[in-house]
Amino acid sequence: MSVRGYVPGVWDLFHIGHLNILRRAREECDVLVIGAVTDDIVEATKGNRPVIPLAERMEILASLSLVDEVVLDDCTSDKMPMWQRVGFDVLFKGDDWRGTPKGAVLEASMAAVGARVVYFPYTHGTTSTILRQFIEAHG
C-alpha cells in the first residue's frame, strides 16, 4: 500500500532547512505532497508577508524532483481541512512543534482520522527568519 505524505510550510526564501525536511519526508513516503501556505495566512500567523509571493513559491517547489504534488494550503494550524482535500497518511513537521500544545492538538486530530504526525529536527543556522533579518539589515 502506498504511503502519502504531506508537508505544509511557508517555503519562503528557500534554504537548506527546507531541503532537509523534504529529503527526510521523501524517504518516508511513496507520494510527497507539499502545501504552500497562503500569504494571508502567513501574515495572520507570523505578522509579516512572505518575501517570495505564493505563486513563485509553489513554482519553485513544483520544480523539485523530491516533490510529487504542490497544493495551496489556506489553513492555519488545524490541518484537518487539508487532510480532507489531500488524504495523506502522514504529516511531517519540524520538531519545534513536538511537545507543544499546538503539536498535541495536531497529533490528536490526525490520529482521529488514522494519520500520523512525524517530526524532523529543526535545522538551526539558516532559517527564513535569519535570512529576512539579513535582507532587512542590508537592503
CATH level 1 class label: Alpha Beta
Question: Low-confidence runs (pLDDT<50, min 5 residues)?
Answer: none
- Number of beta strands: 5
What Rg is obtained from the alpha carbons, in whole angstroms?
15 Å
Judging from the principal axes of the Cα atoms, what is the shape?
Answer: globular
| DSSP summary: helix tally | 6
What topology, given as strand order, has the largest sheet? 3-2-1-4-5
Q: What helical percentage do the residues reach?
A: 40-55%
Number of domains as seen in the coordinates: 1
CATH level 3 topology: Rossmann fold
The average pLDDT score comes to 91
CATH architecture label name: 3-Layer(aba) Sandwich
CATH superfamily: HUPs
User: Strand-residue fraction?
Assistant: 15-25%
- What is the structural class? alpha/beta
Which sheet architecture does the biggest sheet show? Answer: 5 strands, parallel
What does this structure look like?
The protein is of the alpha/beta class. It has one domain: 3-Layer(aba) Sandwich (Rossmann fold), CATH 3.40.50. Helix content is 42%, strand content 20%. The chain contains six helices and five strands; from the N terminus they run E-H-E-H-H-E-H-E-H-E-H. The longest helix is centred in the N-terminal third of the chain and has 12 residues, at 16-27. It is globular.
Question: Main attributes?
Answer:
Rossmann fold; 5-stranded parallel sheet; 6 helices; 139 residues; single chain; 5 strands; alpha/beta; 20% strand
Quick structural overview:
It is built from six helices and five strands. It has 139 residues and is an alpha/beta fold. The protein has a single domain, classed as Rossmann fold.
